[in-house]
Amino acid sequence: MWRNRTPMMKKRALKHGRPTSATVRFLLIGSDSDGDPTWNEVKGEIEVEVPGGPPVVLRGLFNGDKKRAPFVTPGTRLPVALHADTDDKVVIDWGRWDAEGGFAAAKGTGAPDQAAAANAQAYGSTAAPQGAPTTVSAADGPTTSAGGGWQEQSIAGWRAAVAAGRMTEAEFDQAVADLRRATGA
Known about the structure:
By secondary structure, this protein is an alpha+beta fold.
């Protein structure tokens, strides 16, 4: 979940990331830097199929698409690219979804207001299933550096790195201590 993604970052992630798919639990309209609603970033929860590993539930901000995102409903399968080195960062591949016919199918089954109602209902009842670890906080706070959610995302990412053997417990403890000292938490 990269915040303030530039087109170059998204393009690089799609090119060098690990292609897989994710099932949408909910997607809600995001907001731009001025707080105005925009579909260019979406707030949501998706369950990502990790190649060679268990599924991972990610909750936070994702790259949106003002043309396609309003038609996505819970249960929709979207193509994504996982970050090359970690399982807790993804970019939604809207172009591939369109090319595979997903957008045409979604557009033909309902209007954006119907999708929004379904997502709002799913948002109110979403919980992580057994066996699919949630790698970010269940808290719904913003995931920008201006909000509190980014700290939980960092800690969750470090926990995933420990579980994958890319970070030791001592490094994890030091990183958490540094984060808490820096944020006054």
